[in-house]
Amino acid sequence: MYRTRQAFSSLLPFTPLSNVERYSSWLVRSQISPAAKSMSCPGTPLKRGFAAAPPPPPPAEPEAQESFLNGTSGAYVEEMFEAWSLDPKSVHVSWDAYFRGGAYQAPPSLGNSTRPNEIPLANMLPGLIGSSMMQGGGAPSTQIIDAHLAVQGTIRSYQVRGHLAANIDPLGLNNIDTEQAKKMIIRSVTVDSKDFKEKDLDTVYQLPQTTFIGGSDTSLPLREIISRLEKVYCGSIGAEYMHIQDLDQVNWIRQKLETPGALTLGNDDKRRLLARISRSAGFENFLAKKWTAEKRFGLEGVEMLIPCMKQVIDRSTEQGVECVVMGMPHRGRLNVLANVCRKPLEQILTQFAGLEAADEGSGDVKYHLGTYIERLNRSTNKNIRLSVVANPSHLEAVNPVVEGKVRAEQFYRGDTEGKKAMSILLHGDAAFAGQGVVYETMHMAELPDYTTRGTIHIVANNQIGFTTDPRYSRSSPYCTDVGRVVNAPIFHVNADDPEAVLLVSNIAAEWRATWHKDVVIDLVGYRKFGHNEIDEPMFTQPIMYSIIKKHKNVLDIYSDKLIGEGVVTKEEVDAVIDKYEKICEEAFKKAGEETQVFHKHWLDSPWSGFFEGKDPLKVSDTGLHEDTLVHIGKRFSQGPPNAPDFIIHRSMERILKARMEMVNKREIDWALAEALAFGGLLKEGIHVRLSGQDVERGTFSHRHHVLHHQTKDRSTYKPLANLYPDQAPYTVSNSSLSEYAVLGFELGFSMTNPNALVLWEAQFGDFSNTAQCIIDQFIASGQAKWVRQSGLVMLLPHGMEGMGPEHSSARPERFLQLCADDPEYFPPEEEEFAIKQLSHINMIVANCSTPANYFHILRRQTALPFRKPLIVMTPKSLLRHPECRSSFDEMLPGTEFKRMILDAGPAGQNPSSVKKVLFCTGKVYYDLLKERRERGLEDQIAIHTIEQISPFPFDIMKKVTDQYCNAELCWVQEEHKNMGAWTYVQPRTQTAIGGYHRLLQYIGRETAPSPATGSKATHYKELKHFLAQAMSL
Ligand SMILES: Cc1ncc(C[n+]2csc(CCOP(=O)(O)OP(=O)(O)O)c2C)c(N)n1
Ligand SMILES: [Mg+2]
Question: What is the best residue among 297, 333, 334, 395 to mutate for testing ligand 1's pocket, by most ligand atoms within 8 Å of CB?
Fold first, then answer.
């Protein structure tokens, strides 16, 4: 494995043994380094006495006799001692403990026996007085200190570096040679010195409080100390945890790993483990036998994934977890569905039959499908809900979706500590290291509105990614190093040692239950075949695969072990294997009788009760009563009621005052419209969650959903969370600076509860394309692939305002191109035209031009009898545009979202005499209005806006074009010709008109490779040019 070479290059070449660095001085040096201070000085109170260890025998060579106290480090210790003598609190707690323990004998210059903190060594070590270990009748030998520190250092060195020498590669290609490993880990300890005698290993040492290897023994012979440390740290488990900053957590892991007997399993556990391995291996064998040439991305080589997951789930259930949401890639997925989720085998096997589905959707390949199962966990006798979230091929993309879904599960259960719902994420080794979304997702782990209180990550590490070796696919020693950023413990474990895998699975589950933080299990195995079953791995990894060919399967390894131990007989093993094969055969037979499959059988997030009894074509009223509008509006315009001490920023007070005036005048702007929409939903019991970068204030400083006390840190007030005593909760949260992970997270959140409005806002719409995979693979196509609905709203600030190429366009053309709205199909014109269109479309794209329409479209999201993603191009300058206002009259009961807003001025009064009709969407409408007004063309030019671009308002467009029978028809957009809505609107308008006999003309910027110019002057020149074109008659 790659880690070994990395470890060597950072730690080796070794200093020649005769010249080794004294370990004790290494320890002292690390005390000097501030960075190392916290690592080497446990701050937790000592549980055991800190007595000096008996010294090793004095070295014979003069160089070896040189004590660290004679050198510069000696001077440092003296300095520490002096400082401590004057004030024990002036030194680090570890020095305090050390000096208090009396292990240090001050040199004569410091040895003032009248000092209050000095404890005569004789009091501490009465047994040593007079022994050969004491120098000159009572003064402790410097070797006492040296030996004491060396033993501590050795233990610590195993804890820190032991994993580098652990035997975690089942192929043995990359494990370090034991002797070399020992040198690397304890390279400077006396045991490596040529002066050290074999018998010295029998010297008994006091164990420090930083280890648990002694169990109930407080001292052990050095030989035993090293042997126990090697067993714990250099066996089949490589534990990385010393990077964790919380010392209680570090000690917790030490205790779990080091306590003698940690690896010991009872016979029942061993038998159960064997049975689970036999199912995991048996499933893959069965598929391989039945479908030799079919891609299934088998688990062979990492079969331990199944027992590992099962153990994690069992142990978590014991700790109270009721719901586990999993995300995983292709590898081993069918096995997970069969053996972890217990999805009916025949349903899995019918996927190989190539049958067409009998229900809606276009489906997905079998190794991407999700599932949801509620079943009894036999080992705990508790009910558990397991779901595997459907995912695309795009590796790791599902991670944030899973996290969002779990967060929602926790939120709606009131599971504030994450005790009931949890996430498990599975990863491939190459993808875990290579995909940036892993890092982005991990970084949400501790954020208050995004944390899921600990994810258990399991890497099915087969030491290869397709055909690429780790040394070409990552620069980090381990594929799991990303886990370090969130202080997660990382357990590398040899997948050929099932009992070690079981131990780390238990520790991981308990870690999560105890600390509610992420943990990583790196299950190191191999890949028995090629990337898929029909690939030839010898083309690219000949040496590795010649070893793999001869390598014994884990089922054989473990059954031989248990047979050897007398835990099971060969016959029992065969019987277990046969039994499972029979189960598979029976399922195979049943699957063969199936004549159809259903996509709905693979749904990962069923909304029980949501669709039942609903009129599928009825939209509830989206208007609100005046008194509701007023109440919400007023609350939104105030600080906390009855809290005069809550100091609001002066400018903020002005903003609130302006809001109140708008409410009083019944004429509102964009921010108020949004707040009223949210407030109305909250009143109706619908949870609203708004997330994205800087959404609390709003990128454009227009929203202000969180007011900050000006003199008290972290004292805030959210008006919308305080509208009514029985309202639904309102969540508004600034997110981490990520689009991919945060959008994925919100999508996952939206999958759990249809009665919620979940919105993600991009800082500028331009940045949403870093989340393109979530848009393409989940939002646009999720329902078709996985019959899963989502009402997620994407708010994308969009508009050409001279702010340069990356602050102008949310790329509406991209979203429109993803909409499955046939440009040549005019649906039947009937009463339910609009709702039917919505029900058939995959997502809605809108660009509202009035606050009221924005209000309605937000509210319509939850008023629909189904859920569809909504993409809204939102304004920037319009947020403060004096004309961009709406009256309460447009929001009262009976009013609704308008798919198009038609000209109601002089042109609209007399359409047949109008010369030119301008269709447009969004902000350009206000530019056109102004231009038309300035030119006095209100009766000759009509301006209509398309508010809902997709699904396209064919019916309204037809009526309008018919009415304006003598007018030239133009589409005006501010975006370049190859962008914006033009390519979407043009063919659909022609369909609405009924053909190409009357053409829609284009007015706008020319084609361009970049969305906008970097020059303000050019921007205005372009604007002026196309506005003039629009007004020419
Ligand atoms: C984002 C993304 N890029 C590329 C691929 C193509 N691809 C499929 S599997 C694979 C290798 C994955 O290796 P690893 O993560 O180690 O998983 P393994 O197949 O070894 O289990 C690649 C590159 C993909 N599916 N997703
Ligand atoms: Mg791999």
Answer: 395
